[in-house]
Amino acid sequence: MPELPEVETIARTLRLGYQEKPALIGMSVSAVQVLWPGSIAVPQPAQLVERMKGQVIQAIGRRAKYLVFTLSRDKLIIHLRMSGDLRVEHQDEPQAIHDRVIFFLNEPWRLTFNDARKFGRVWLVDNAESVLSGLGPEPLSDEFTVKRFYGRLQERRRQLKPLLMDQSFLAGVGNIYADEALHSSKLHPLTISNELSFPQVEKLLTAIRETLGLGIEQNGASIDWVYRGGNFQNNFQVYARAGEPCTTCGAPIVRIVVGQRGTYFCPVCQPQPGSGNIEG
DNA sequence: CACGAGACCTGTTCGC
DNA sequence: TGCGAACAGGTCTCGT
User: Fold this and answer.
1) Which one of A3, A6, A89, A180 is the catalytic residue?
2) Do A27 and A111 touch, CB atoms closer than 8 A?
3) pLDDT band for position A217 (50/70/90)?
4) pLDDT tens, A179-202?
5) How would you classify the pairing of strands A109-115 and A99-104?
6) Rounded distance between C-alpha atoms, residue A22 and residue A110, angstroms
7) Residues 6+ apart with CB under 8 A from A152
8) Sign of the alpha-carbon torsion through A134, A28, A20, A107
């Protein structure tokens, strides 16, 4: 389900509270119920349950698409993958279908990890780096400069879109925001990474940041039944718009498959480099 | 190294 | 209406 803006939104609402839901900072874990052991990556479910008891939630943040809970002693890390969700609920609410792990907090609250497709994972580790060390730079951080981005793109010779979605290359960008950022920067998804000029990279980084920033502003995107509350889906220029007119030039948006992912782009605004023919 | 295919799962939507 | 195919915001592993 979620990419960087959705995960950021979830982290913020858990950290600060939202409407009738409380902030979780300062709450302690009284018990953990594992309904689907396969959701626990590390350690063994019984050990996770034992270790979490009594730990206090001190901070809630995000790294790439991972939620990171700083507890008294350990880090609780959760990846929602395609269909995961975290819900703050009353402890007396009935259990929902697809609930996988329930964290009991201060009365009357609980935090529920719900995940229809069972792709999501939970880690409890003393060192977050054991889970997060392979990740690339955060696109929104100040240390990630155009120069550095250009250098990384030059080091590789890969199709641009799959490279942007490679979490070891760049953290947090997924299928939606990759397509939207490429459209915004007028680059074809199959452009070869080391064939970009410096100005093109500059434009691409700006587009990635603006797209992610708008996504965060809109509380993420809500498409399916899965994640609700976001509005970024109303700002899609290309994603899931095959056949509809490009908002810039009016040409029909095209869908192709790149790296086994549905990929949407405007054949006029985003012409394939080297292919002389432009669709009309 | 780069890429495609398959796996992991369940639910919804599409097409005949 | 019904039923199978296709598709879904992600990542991992294997073979070429």
Assistant:
1) A3
2) no
3) very high
4) 999 999 999 999 999 999 999 999
5) antiparallel
6) 11
7) A136, A169, A170
8) positive
The beta strands (E) that lie in chain A are given as 31-34, 40-42, 57-63, 66-71, 75-79, 84-90, 99-104, 109-115, 121-125, 254-258, 261-265
**Residue A1, CB, strand C, below 7 Å:** yes
Give chain A's mean pLDDT: 96
Q: Show Cβ contacts of residue A160 under 8 Å, excluding neighbours closer than 6 positions.
A: A182, A187, A188, A189, A190, A191, A192, A193, A196
Average pLDDT over residues A194-217: 98
Nucleotides of C under 7 A from a protein CB: 7-12
Which nucleotides of chain B are near protein (any atom < 7 Å from a CB)? 1-12
Cα(A87)–Cα(A85) distance, integer angstroms:
6
Examine the residue annotation and report whether A3 is marked as an active-site residue of this protein: yes
The active-site residue out of A62, A63, A65, A121 is A65
| Nucleotide B9: closest residue by CA–C1' | A117
Which residue reads 């040409």 in tokens? Answer: A251
Match 């697809």 to its residue by tokens.
A98
At CA A109, angle to CA A107 and CA A112, rounded to 5?
145
Are the C-beta atoms of A88 and A30 separated by less than 8 Å? no
pLDDT at A15: 98
Residue A234 CB closer than 7 angstroms to strand C? no
If one counts every other C-beta atom within 10 angstroms of the C-beta of residue A88, the result is 20
pLDDT tens digits, residue range A243-259?
A: 999 999 999 999 999 99
CA of A68 to C1' of B5 (A): 32
In whole angstroms, give the CA distance from residue A238 to residue A31. Answer: 45
